[in-house]
Amino acid sequence: MASYASASFMLVLLLQLWSCSEALPGGHPVDPTCPPEWASAAGTTSNYGEPSCQPPAPHIPVALFPYDVDPMQFALNLEYTEAEFFLHAAYGVGLDEIAPKLALGGPPPVGARKANLDEVTWRIIAEFGLQEVGHVRAIQRTVGGIPRPLIDLSAHNFARIMDEAFGYHLNPSFDPYINTLNFLLASYVVPYLGLNGYVGTNPIINGYETKKLLAGLLGVEAGQDAVFRGLLFERRGEAVPQYGNITVTEFTDRVSALRNRLGRCGVKDEGLTVPRELGAEGAICTNVLSAGRDSLSYARTPAELLRILYLTGDEHVPGGFYPEGANGRIARILKLLWVGTVSLSVPACEPRGLSSELLAGSLGFSVISADNFPRVVDTAFEYTEPSLRPQHQQLQLPARLLLSYMIPYLGINSYVWRIARRSGLLHDTKQKKGQQHLRLA
Ligand SMILES: [Fe+2]
């Protein structure tokens, strides 16, 4: 039944794409943007295999380094999210109908639905949604895949984001699917974070295939964000219907401020207008593209992104878009390292490898219980066979385990950890119900 539905949808989709004439919102019978035949500009006789068409040989002839895998797989969380959000908004269905194998068995998203969009916006969102399918496929092909996480794309979740952004309950509750402007405002939330993530990932990957992948993803992600911001900038002075005098500009300002607040790493996000001194070269208030000094894009680490996407301000505490947590080794370990008391005190703000990311996370999380360690170790090493697990008695000594298992895995010189403890940053605290705890001083 599922495969029949899937095949039917693909047939409809193909017919739509071929004819470019039916089922467009507004019932436009002819699509003026579809060329009548293969455009002459695209139909060249060039042979793409010619040496002159190929990039020069890489200086380091390694396609993929092992440490490239985790950060690129982490990006799949955002790509899945964008794919489901845009595809559902445009077509009313998501990856499960369009490319079911790419979900890798992950659960379907919650609350995503077809949006009430004008024709131009529908076209843009449909294109972006299909682009995201390619992004998911390209990452899976290059570094391997992770299952789609549970993604909450419900109107309720977006309403919560906007309520958080404004600091009070918007009445009526914000609904991204109700009209074009609301959908554009909701779309302001996600691709920008993908862009930040890729800029942050760039310095910590080295394989030439991984770099090619990241550059290709970053280019389109930045383009998508620019389209959303450009469309919103055109309407910056408009009052958002149902919300009195609140303008598009204020919505974007509030969302950007919220992301800065949750990210806990200073200003890496700006609305559509800024004080002149923060604009490009300190000379303009217009801020169609969000960028920092020298007009370079801001970078965010996976931990920062999770703080924002979870809406908790804590990369160890799932929520928001990912009620059960994001997938991939980075997110899973960060989640497992939390047992529920004190919040982070050492936020990870600079791009760095998984090792340092997790060190920062480790210093940041406050309590490690012996009970929690087997799961942490299993996740870190991806043990599937019980016989491969460390002996249980070793798990009764969290501090020793940190030095003997976690630290070598993380690639961190154990002196770092010892220094952290000797300097008083960490110390053993108490025995409680058979658990030994480490606590931030
Ligand atoms: Fe994407």
TrEMBL record:
Keyword Heme listed: no
A Pfam entry, by short name: Ferritin_2
Keywords carried by this UniProt record: Signal
Coiled-coil stretches noted in the UniProt entry, renumbered to this chain: none
Domain of life: Eukaryota
Signal peptide range in chain numbering: 1-23
Descriptive protein name: Desiccation-related protein PCC13-62-like
